[in-house]
Design brief:
The protein has helices spanning about 30-95, 105-135, 150-165, 190-205, 240, 265-275, and strands at about 5-10, 20-25, 145-150, 170-175, 185, 215-220, 225-230, 280-285, 290-295. The strands form 3 sheets. Strands 4-6-7-9-8 form a 5-stranded mixed beta sheet, with helices on one face. The radius of gyration is 34 Å and the shape is elongated. It has 6 helices and 9 strands.
Length: about 300
């Protein structure tokens, strides 16, 4: 039997005179199974400990990265706020100085500065509110209604032409509004904000050495209404593509003054797309340009 160990006592004797010692271990199987049963929990515990350690390290690095992005966000927001605040403060001080008599045209110019800078502050505040809204996207009340998306895209593009010309007199923006079925179920305000954010993003990340060229197109693909925003800007590196929709993340995070912005525009865009059951993809070649493609389900007849 497997539990009996046999040993010859005097192996030099003739085989006919061999004597054997047999030892029987009645609890051998129980001892082995007991040892294995102790080893299995040890292995499981070690595995759990390893997984916990790896998870902890991952969380620590993730929190560190988030902390760095938040710090960058605060730095950029501070930089963005300082300029309009300084301008408003200076103009207000000059207007309140009784010892200076200002001509009417100067007063109009100062009022124009106050208006534009206060509008800029309001837009920054709205962007921060847009970000905070998407902490709990399911709790947001969207006013979904039948929307003719071609018109919204075309109007936003036409309005953006002036901004392109101001930033680059040689720049151009083209609109190819070719979608034959542009009716979608959408919130007009958030849909318009989405279009404006993607247009503005293309302008911010332009290449200074070449004229701006931005092409906006709409078309149908199956049961989808599709918009593409193609630019000839600086492009996005492959390692940045998967993170551009992250909150606070900015491709130029190493230089907070290089590109204006606070790193929340694309987060907002992604939130709006998700709320409308759409999709957004990005295709970019670093140094040559970027194309954002957004699609929304069209309404059934």
């Amino acid at each position: 039997a497997a539990d009996v160990v046999t040993q010859v006592l005097y192996p030099n004797d003739p085989p006919s005179k061999w004597n054997y010692l047999k030892v029987y271990f009645p609890t051998k199987r129980d001892y082995i199974s007991g040892s294995v049963s102790f080893l299995v929990p040890s292995i499981v515990f070690s595995f759990i400990l390893l997984v916990t350690f790896i998870t902890t390290i991952y969380i620590i690095f993730r929190q560190k990265r988030l902390s760095e992005m938040k710090t960058d966000f605060v730095n950029n927001m501070t930089h963005e706020l300082k300029t309009p605040i300084a301008s408003i403060s200076l103009v207000a001080q000059m207007l309140s100085d009784q010892s200076i008599t200002l001509p009417a045209d100067k007063v109009r110019d100062y009022h124009s500065v106050l208006f534009s800078e206060s509008k800029r502050l309001r837009m920054l505040a709205e962007k921060v509110l847009q970000l905070s809204m998407f902490d709990s996207i399911d709790a947001i009340h969207f006013k979904f209604d039948e929307l003719e998306a071609n018109t919204v895209v075309e109007e936003a593009t036409m309005a953006f032409q002036l901004k392109v010309k101001q930033d680059d007199p040689n720049g151009s923006i083209e609109a190819h509004i070719d979608a034959e079925d542009p009716i979608i179920n959408a919130d007009r305000m958030h849909f318009t904000n989405l279009v404006n954010n993607l247009l503005d993003n293309a302008l911010k990340y332009r290449r200074p050495e070449v004229p701006i060229k931005l092409v906006v197109s709409t078309f149908n693909k199956g049961k989808q209404f599709v918009i593409t925003f193609s630019d000839n800007g600086i492009g996005i590196k492959k390692e940045d593509l998967k993170r551009i929709f992250d909150r606070f993340y900015r491709v130029t995070s190493g230089n907070v003054h290089n590109v204006k912005g606070v790193g929340i525009g694309l987060t907002y865009v992604a939130g709006v797309v998700k709320a409308h059951h759409g999709t957004i993809t990005v295709d970019s070649k670093y140094g040559h340009g970027t194309t954002f493609t957004v699609s929304f389900p069209i309404m059934d007849d």
